Amino acid sequence: MSDKAVVQGQTNSAWGGRFQESTDAFVAEFTASVGFDKRLAKEDITGSLAHAKMLVKQGILTNEEGALIAQGLAEIMQEIEAGRFEWSVALEDVHMNVEKRLTDKIGEAGKKLHTGRSRNDQVATDIRLFMRGAIDEVLKEIKRLQGGIVDLAEREYATIMPGFTHLQVAQPITFGYHLLAWYEMLARDVGRFVDCRARLNVSPLGAAALAGTTFAIDREFSAQELGFSGVCENSLDAVSDRDFAIEFCAAAAIVLMHLSRFSEELILWNSAAFGFVDLPDRFCTGSSIMPQKKNPDVPELVRGKTGRVYGHLFALLTLMKSQPLAYNKDNQEDKEPLFDTLDTLLHCLRAFADMMPALKANKDNMLRAAAKGFSTATDLADYLVRKGVAFRDAHEIVGRSVRLAIEAQCDLSELALEQLQAVSTAIEADVYEYLTLEGSVNARNHRGGTAPQQVLARAQALKAKLRA
Ligand code: ARG
Question: What spacing in Å lies between the alpha carbon of 174 and ligand 1's midpoint?
Fold first, then answer.
């Protein structure tokens, strides 16, 4: 290390006491987190206010010191919000930037704020507070998207489209029904975030560096001040684990997986080959060479961003996996993946929630596609079973009817009664009621089935639930 690389006078005043030389300039940059953890400033100040209030209540700080700290922190918050705060890399992170500014402002009392606390429990508290707010935002956006899905499902409850397995036409369903499948996926996503929030909502404050503190603190008090539902029971665990961040990223990765599947369907449906939906122009872009193109960029980008969020989940899992207890500097690396996961998730949810009300279904194309591919073949088999034929035999009979229709280049419902009866004498004139697309969807009239009546009832019930 050359002398030149040493920033004179840059040894951190918060911990410089035992050091004989200043921090290397590159090392100072390398180890600093203020560039990104300043995003936690509001939570850092909120946490400090609660900590100071607790210290006063316990007689560890005087009322006057407490009042000075509260006043100073409030001013700092204003400076930060107004963009007037000068962040310093030499002060390493958000915690020491705020504390130094406080001491500059109020003197001795500022130096006492850190009594009975460490940056280790401080940062763990900040992240948990931040994530509570983040999850609330995510939940709001998922619910907005669910609202759009339910509205569209209510409008399109009887619109017939092909249901697919293996991307082959399988059975007719309604578009509203397909949309409500998306709703259910998101409902489970909501549950995952609600669980994650409840689990992380406990206070690490008082854990201090790793073993607790020698001061007579009141952890329940500061926890309550901060709206936590309880306190972390073990201080080693409180300062070292970031499983809640991993859990958040896992829940986010699952949402993105869902959004990626929705994207894929929108991209397919918006293609000329399918023509099931029209994405509004304002969510698409053109091609610089092919004038006819209208590209579904928004869903494509959401599909693409899924990989990025999976990456963050793996970054955090890997970050955590080999760390011995308790806090290690590795944990500083939790923030950027976490923040980017949140931002990406919110953007993708927003794009979908904005897009949903403007999605237009091309009913004719959907109907035409459902009529292709013998989508009512199962209905014919079920019909035969009701006429007393065993299901396996019915399957065989329908297979032969399908072959007949392929040869005649028509749909099952277009075969003459004599043609069908040549395959099975169990078939009677009433068969046509079951071979139409409407007959097929209407027949699946039970909870969770695709009958328009079921879809409408479910959409209306969900609408009421979302409003509540
Ligand atoms: N900037 C640090 C982080 O994000 C704060 C905690 C630092 N603690 C320590 N013992 N170095 O993790």
Answer: 54
Domains of the chain (ranges, CATH numbers): 16-115 (1.10.275.10), 120-198+238-367 (1.20.200.10), 371-467 (1.10.40.30)
Residues 6+ away with beta carbon under 8 Å from 455: 153, 157, 158, 174, 176, 177, 180
| C-alpha 76 to ligand 1 mean position (Å) | 21
- Cis bond before residue 326 (omega within 30° of 0): yes
Position in ligand 1 atom list of the atom nearest CA 94: 1
DSSP β-bridge partners for residue 173: 161
| Residue whose CA lies nearest to ligand 1 atom number 12 | 332
Q: Of the residues 2, 95, 114, 166, which is catalytic?
A: 166
d(C-alpha 69, C-alpha 49), whole Å? 8
Phi first, then psi: give them for residue 170, nearest 5 degrees.
-110, -70
- Whether the model clears a pTM of 0.90, i.e. scores above it, the answer is yes
* Active-site residue flag, 51: no
Residue 166 annotated among the catalytic residues of the structure: yes
Using alpha carbons, list the distances in angstroms from residue 317 to 47, 129, 243, 331: 27, 21, 8, 11
Pairing of strands 202-203, 230-231: parallel
Full pLDDT tens readout for the chain, 468 residues? 333 333 444 567 788 888 888 889 999 999 999 999 999 999 999 999 999 999 999 999 999 999 999 999 999 999 999 999 999 999 999 999 999 999 999 999 999 999 999 999 999 999 999 999 999 999 999 999 999 999 999 999 999 999 999 999 999 999 999 999 999 999 999 999 999 999 999 999 999 999 999 999 999 999 999 999 999 999 999 999 999 999 999 999 999 999 999 999 999 999 999 999 999 888 888 878 787 778 999 999 999 999 999 999 999 999 999 999 999 999 999 999 999 999 999 999 999 999 999 999 999 999 999 998 899 999 999 999 999 999 999 999 999 999 999 999 998 999 999 999 999 999 999 999 899 999 999 999 999 999 999 999 999 999 999 998
